[in-house]
């Protein structure tokens, strides 16, 4: 019976996270994994080359050697193990799941904000501080999007929660109240 990608990602990331917590290497490991994920994102052919039949094993091992050359011992061992077990296709999912655990550990939230105009640094800072207090996060990593159709205000979303403070939503609420 084969395991699905999320089950594999959960198991590997849990074991890795527990290991690096015990070794006090959480931040170092996270940084290595983020860099590794970026390598895979910018080189679309890398994973197919590592799992496909086109390259001889010696060339695949050379690619693995390049991948681990600047990584910590823990991340190097992860890459070797994932390669040896034929799970290279699951590595990005493992990294994503590790990041989810890292975010929980650091009380960090990734949030999206939609505004009618681009926010200046002061507005962003105030928005991040207010949102962090409201959801109990120590850190909010903000992704900004501009959508003039919301007219004003902001729509924030994170962790499957949306706070809609847009002017277009307020106008729609008033319209519904007037119709009643």
Short description:
This protein is of the alpha+beta class and 180 residues long. It has eight helices and four strands, in the order ααααααβαβββα. The protein is elongated.
Describe the structure.
- The mean pLDDT is 92.
- The chain starts with a helix and ends with a helix.
- It is built from eight helices and four strands; from the N terminus they run ααααααβαβββα.
- The protein has 180 residues and is α+β, with helices and mostly antiparallel strands.
Task: Considering the chains and any ligands shown, give keywords for the structure.
about 180 residues; alpha+beta; 4-stranded mixed β-sheet; 4 strands; about 60% helix; elongated
Strand order of the largest sheet: 2-1-3-4
Q: N-to-C terminal Cα separation, in Å?
A: 57 Å
Give the low-pLDDT segments. Answer: none
What oligomeric state is this? single chain
**Secondary-structure content class:** alpha+beta
Shape: elongated
Percentage of residues in strands:
5-15%
Can you give the mean pLDDT? 92
Number of helical stretches of at least 4 residues: 8
SSE order and pairing:
Elements (H helix, E strand, L loop, with lengths): L4 H18 L3 H17 L3 H6 L5 H12 L4 H12 L6 H16 L1 E8 L5 H15 L3 E8 L7 E5 L2 E4 L2 H13 L1
Parallel strand pairs: 1-2
Antiparallel strand pairs: 1-3, 3-4
